[in-house]
């Protein structure tokens, strides 16, 4: 799913629905025709608190154990609306309309079909509330961040069968992706200790906040949210500026001129560049807070990695700045990298190569478990 956000209001034009369709599909059409309003001053955290406490009384505040990171323009509810509108198209769920009586009420259970860290419970509740506020997620046996085992019933939702089936796939898509990210993050965070694991901006377009929320649930820490909340001087900036020193010096001058205070990180690729940064910092007042040590983990033919260059760089810096290792970070190498003394380890794989955790939502759970056992998925 690709979601494009534009600074000016964006209207998705949907053809009119047939009059016999239920209220939910008409609601989606109205949502499609409304401009998607981007938040400009209110953080997602404050918006989420308000949505949970007032707008969605059926959603439990307790389900949001870990709140999403803040973003000045991200509209989480707008992302949910777009995901539902994408699924409904111009005719709604024709299969459910044809097969499920509108007045039938059922109870459906979330089932874990493999082991992992569960994430996205709070977001799933928001999806159900958007589809039908009368739906009740009556019980979660787990919370975001808990480890679940294959075959476990995670939670149950009660209400009209039509609404549950319509919301099912969108809710599960968010939960499965977030749980996959959280599961890998948890494994890498444990192995990286005492270093702190970070993700990067290599997230699915339109799902930046959702992906980074999952990292928090998995026990990681967020790197910068975007281009606006931290200065990160990378190789292309250095090449364009002429040198590491020129790039850092220009950033210091810019921040002072604009009266901006924020974290500043510079990427270094060699020990010579580390020396250059340290020399500049010793001679000048600088806003620099962190030095990235990029690709100083060298793969070996044996499959192991050589971290001697990384260790040397950390020793040179000697605690004067935070340090961040990046490049060649995998589940197999992260422990060795973490033992070098670096402050942070960043991994794009947490979000760009995520394997979704298999979760399902079933009305007939006994049959689902029977089939799952037959196929080794429950």
TrEMBL record:
Transmembrane parts of this sequence: none
UniProt-listed Enzyme Commission number(s): 2.4.2.19
Keywords recorded for this protein, A-Z: Glycosyltransferase, Pyridine nucleotide biosynthesis, Transferase
Record's keyword annotation contains Transferase: yes
Molecular-function GO terms, alphabetical: nicotinate-nucleotide diphosphorylase (carboxylating) activity
Catalytic activity as recorded in UniProt: nicotinate beta-D-ribonucleotide + CO2 + diphosphate = quinolinate + 5-phospho-alpha-D-ribose 1-diphosphate + 2 H(+)
Listed SUPFAM superfamilies: Nicotinate/Quinolinate PRTase C-terminal domain-like, Nicotinate/Quinolinate PRTase N-terminal domain-like
Occurrences of domain Quinolinate phosphoribosyl transferase N-terminal (ranges): 93-179
Top-tier EC class: transferase
Pathway(s) this gene product operates in, as recorded in its UniProt entry: Cofactor biosynthesis; NAD(+) biosynthesis; nicotinate D-ribonucleotide from quinolinate: step 1/1
Domain Quinolinate phosphoribosyl transferase C-terminal residues, every copy: 181-362
Record-level GO BP terms: NAD+ biosynthetic process; quinolinate catabolic process
Family matches, as CDD domains: QPRTase (cd01572)
Gene Ontology cellular component annotations, sorted alphabetically: cytoplasm
Entries under InterPro entries matching the protein: Aldolase_TIM, NadC, NadC/ModD, Nicotinate_pribotase-like_C, Quinolinate_PRibosylTase_N_sf, Quinolinate_PRibosylTrfase_C, Quinolinate_PRibosylTrfase_N
NCBIfam families documented for this protein: nadC (TIGR00078)
Family: Belongs to the NadC/ModD family.
Record's protein name: nicotinate-nucleotide diphosphorylase (carboxylating)
